Amino acid sequence: MLFFVTLNNRRPPEDIEAQQASHRDWLIANARAGRIALAGPMEPCTGGLIMAHCADRGELDLMMADDPFVIHGSVEVQVLCGVVA
After folding, report:
1. Domain 2-83 CATH assignment equals 3.40.630.30
2. Which residues form the YCII-related domain (predicted)?
3. What is the DSSP string of 35-83?
4. 51: burial class by Cβ within 10 Å (0-12, 13-18, 19+)?
5. C-alpha angle 67/69/71, rounded to 5°?
6. Per-domain residue ranges for the chain?
7. pTM for the complete prediction?
């Protein structure tokens, strides 16, 4: 399934910036594993958007729980929709 996920910043920009490198590593690892099709920041810079390819919502939730932004409570995760692809 394809899932569209928004990450909405909950912390000041300096906190987000401090975790940016580890978040980017998480994105790259999941993209290489085939779980993230695309990702990028929103404009204005209030968070990000991820298009994820996961077997089901459970796999998506497990993947998102490992995001450093989520671990540190820096973002609010919102799953907009999941579609069969």
Report:
1. no
2. 3-77
3. SEEEEEE-SSSSEEEEEEE-SSHHHHHHHHHT-HHHHTT-EEEEEEEEE
4. middle
5. 70
6. 2-83
7. 0.91
